[in-house]
Amino acid sequence: MPHPPIVSIIDDDISVRVAVADIVRSMDLMAKTFASGQDFLSANGLADTACIVADVQMPGMSGIELQQVLTAKEPKIPMIFITAYPDERVRDKAIEGGAICFLNKPFGGPAIIECIERALSIRDAETSGDAGTITARESE
Fold it and tell me: Hey, which end of the chain has fewer CB within 10 Å, N or C?
């Protein structure tokens, strides 16, 4: 039996990691959590990650810096950004870099579920060669 898709949650705030992981598991998906971008990059199974939910501002490596590192890697992993410090320039940079969604904290469960479903749809379309046009969603 195939494993459910893995959603990697990267945030320096443990309460956010736990809350988002609970939502991911409620979707019958696997959740892996990381306290930093460096932790994520050094973990095995990078290629197994179907979607990333990352905080924008973290010590060491920001979510945007992580996005830039991952942009050079294959396969491309759809990214969702979350932030407690909304900044239009950062949002624009994330979206231009290919982010699927950019959510302001606090966000509701339905918003993150919609973003994860969209990211997984994009990943499925890209792996099947039918990428279509799905645009990034702005936060509520």
Answer: N
Q: Is 103 left (phi over 0), alpha (psi -120 to 50) or beta?
A: beta
pLDDT surpasses 50 at 93:
yes
* Length of the chain, in residues: 140
CA distance 94 to 79: 9
Domain range 6-138, CATH class: alpha beta
- Scan for tokens 């950062």, then name that residue: 90
Backbone angles phi, psi at 9, to 5 degrees: -110, 120
pTM of the entire predicted model: 0.89
Q: Where in 56-138 does DSSP place strands (E)?
A: 79-83, 101-104, 137-138
What token pair was written down for 26? 């409620």
CA distance 4 to 13: 25
* Residue 133 near residue 118 (C-beta atoms within 8 A): no
Mean pLDDT of 85-102: 95
Which stretches of 29-133 are assigned E, i.e. beta strand? 30-34, 49-55, 79-83, 101-104
Q: Where are the domains of the chain?
A: 6-138
